[in-house]
Amino acid sequence: MRRLGRWVAVALAAAWLAGSFGVLAEAKTRIVVAAHYGQGQKDFLLPYFDEYMKLHPDVELVYQELTFADYLQTVLTARMAGQAPDVYHLYSLWGVQMQQNGVLDQPPADVQKLVRETYVPSAVDSVTIDGTVWGIPTEINNYMLVYNRRLLAEAGYSEPPGTWEELLKVGKAVTQKNAEGKITRAGFAIERGWDSIVVHPWMALLYSEGGQLFSDDFSQATFNSPEGVRALEKLVATFEQGLTDPNVSVWDFPTGTIAMTIMAPWYENALKSTMGERYQEIAVAPIPPGPAGLRSVQYTFYWAVDSKSRVKKEAWEFLRWLNAARDGQGSRMGQMLITLGAIPANQADIAAHPDDLDDTYTRPFVDALAYSVAEPNVVQGQEIKMVLMNYILKAYYGEMTPKQALDAAAREVDDILFEYY
Fold it and tell me: What InterPro entries does this protein's entry cite (predicted)?
């Protein structure tokens, strides 16, 4: 009996210890961070998670990887199920929908002040809704004319086109077809399957023509104005004049069979990794301007915190640390973006990495931030962009004229806007 008593005592002590350690484990602050960075990208972010956890042993950072295509729907569904992450890395176009649905926590006053004072102005615009900053900008992307110098030189041109008329002329000179009439060397490439790559180049031309997407109060679409139609006519002309066709893909640009396209800075790593020494053939120039002058369109990613998170205070502390500029080094987040070949939105990061941002590919994008226009923060922005993509493609394929396509898109977009404005 004495032996049995001792075993009971040992078992009770073990149970008490297990319970105690369980309480300690539960006391650890767990912050779930959702982002779209996948293999080969998150590897440059996660070491900073480890660094922070070593500095703060009471904090556990958990990375939740979500695909970009499914990100918005996934987080909204998870939130309805009570399983939302604590921290989001958002595409700026999703911000209004999430903010109006009460998903986002309003950042502390010091965070808003930091963003307004130290970030690129167009990036600040991207994270501002109704006058309030809703997150910390990270990666900035705008659009420029990316071209192959070798192909232009072989066609007799030493400089990129400065007008759209010159672009069509140069593109036609470069284009080659086989005996069956199939394009084997394209003067221009336009992508078809991704909304951003379809819509953003047209938006850049729209702004350069002097147009706007919406009325100032967002109650009506205005992109079907004469300026919007002229912008789409420019792109449709690359099809009509034989510079490209639906079989020519932007993703074939590294093969050296495409002379020009309109693309973003993040494409640089893909070009470097696939082209090898031939990467030296690639250069970047402004998109040929319209009457309003040089313009580009720009979108941003940003960190935000869930309004129902139980660890909001700790989440913002982590984000402050991750995005804080260090003496002469910029921020940790900025270093991660530089490593990926992206442009950071923090002006301290841009200043801290002049060599990385001064190559012939990236520098024109950085310079163009001065005249880049932030993608508008409008409710149901993603849905609206999909409508635009579908009708722009109809114009490319000759199923509608540019005016017909944009008029039809405007009618659908007006119906969407009517529900919210």
Answer: Bact_solute-bd_prot1 (IPR050490), SBP (IPR006059)
CA distance 204 to 290: 10
Alpha carbons 146 and 188: distance in angstroms, whole number = 10
pTM of the model: 0.89
The model's pLDDT over 36-57, given as tens digits with 9 standing for 90+, comes to 999 889 999 999 999 999 999 9
Q: Which of 97, 98, 96 is nearest to 85 (CA)?
A: 98
Which H or E run includes 182?
none
- The CATH homologous superfamily for domain 9-140+300-374 is Periplasmic binding protein-like II (3.40.190.10)
What is the fold, at CATH topology level, of the domain defined by 144-214+226-297? Answer: D-Maltodextrin-Binding Protein; domain 2 (3.40.190)
Residue 398 DSSP one-character state: T
Strands ordered across the beta sheet of 260-263: 260-263, 144-148, 282-285
